[in-house]
Amino acid sequence: MSIYPRQKLGQKSLERNSPNKSNIMKANALLCPTCCVEYVEVEFDFEVDGVILHNVKALRCPECEEEAFTPQQIEAIMKKPTSSSLNFFGH
């Protein structure tokens, strides 16, 4: 006999501990360091030194809207036909 009361596991506690689509993250998901929320990939027009680059892919936090680039995305930007994009990343 235990001195601690036995807790019944109801449906609500089981649901809370069960994985669902909203809290499952991919194995290599990148998280926003501020919000701890998974980045989503977006595509937009991006201005670098007065030159507009069209259809640039980036990662954006859905909470704070901070944007980040993966190394592959930076490489794709650097391949765009403009010298200004190279200056932006220090090349």
Q: Mean pLDDT score, rounded?
A: 74
Query: Which sequence of strands runs across the widest sheet?
Result: 1-2-3
Distance between the ends: 71 Å
Structural class per helix/strand content? Answer: alpha+beta
Element order, helices and strands? HEEEHH
Largest sheet report: 3 strands, antiparallel
Helix count, DSSP H or I runs of 4 or more residues = 3
Strand content: 15-25%
Helix amount: 10-25%
Low-pLDDT regions: 10-22
Number-wise, the strands total 3
The coarse silhouette is: elongated
| Overall radius of gyration | 22 Å
Walk me through the structure:
The protein has helices spanning 11-17, 71-78, 83-88, and strands at 40-48, 51-60, 67-68. It has 91 residues and is α+β, with helices and mostly antiparallel strands. Strands 1-2-3 form a three-stranded antiparallel beta sheet. The longest helix is centred in the C-terminal third of the chain and has 8 residues, at 71-78.
What distinguishing features does this structure have?
single chain, 91 residues, alpha+beta, 23% helix, elongated
